[in-house]
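Q: Could you fold this chain for me?
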Amino acid sequence: MKTIELIVPCYNEEECIGLFYKRICQVFQELPGFDFIITYIDDGSKDCTLEEIKKVVVSSNQGKVQYISLSRNFGKESAIYAGLSKCTGDYVALLDADLQHPPELLKQMIVAIEEEGYDCASARRVSRKGEPIIRSMFSKAFYHIINRITVMDLVPGSTDYRLMRRNVVEAIVSMTERERFTKGIYSWVGFKNKWIEYENVERVAGSTTWNFWGLLRYAYTGFIAFAATPLRGVVYFGMLIVLISILMAIYIGMGALKTANTERTGYASIMILMLFLGGVIITILGMIGEYMARIYMEVKNRPIYFARETNIGKETEDECRKDTPQK
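A: Sure. Below is the predicted structure, expressed as structure tokens.
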């Protein structure tokens, strides 16, 4: 019997924990030959998420439930890394606790890997029904732009939800960068992947912690993490400014030759040019500074996360105590 380990990052998902476990149990009843492990990653939740996870651990009568509670909110990307770095299943799936990633898709994913020979199978939303129109527009623009300026090939509507063989997981975990962008990492490591399409699903309970600005920062992280194009663009932009300056100098010189106005001071032209060039210089320095800041964070080599509490390995320790003769 093969084991599928489900990595589930959670942040303030107390209402979803029990519902997620029940749904997974229903799905695996229809998957003979497969057992499951659920690894909840509590990403420093401020509600009772950890308490709800512990309740599921105690009451679980199917599969195995374990958890890692991080010392603070490190972000979803770090929570994903924490789960993947500790997983032991034959296959590993990554999905959200709010059930917007339908667990029923695991059946098609298993077929893709077991019977069709793929290394991983990923879920892709073909509609954004129920999402704000502005968010959908920005999402489409994001995929279009990032595919143009990077070496990645991100499929529009792609999600973090996927089922992977162990060699794929090991490749992802080997990338220990601090500023993580999981979708980009998926694309960068490669492997043979099959896309499973599904319609957008609403949250089963609670409310999302992702807002527009959070998604915008996430997209910005993706650009900086996988694109050197902005730095190259600065060079071309500088060349363009030089060309404009030369053309402007020619234009002003020709105007001065044609006009005999001795009262012309050129003050306005000089101020506009200085403000323009000043803005360009500040923008260029800011772009370079952003990349230097990322380098600074990487060279410090800080751990990606700290675990405050976990029950992983607890069963093994208990068995060792039972087998050790008491003095």
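A (continued): Residues 267-299 form the longest helix (33 residues).
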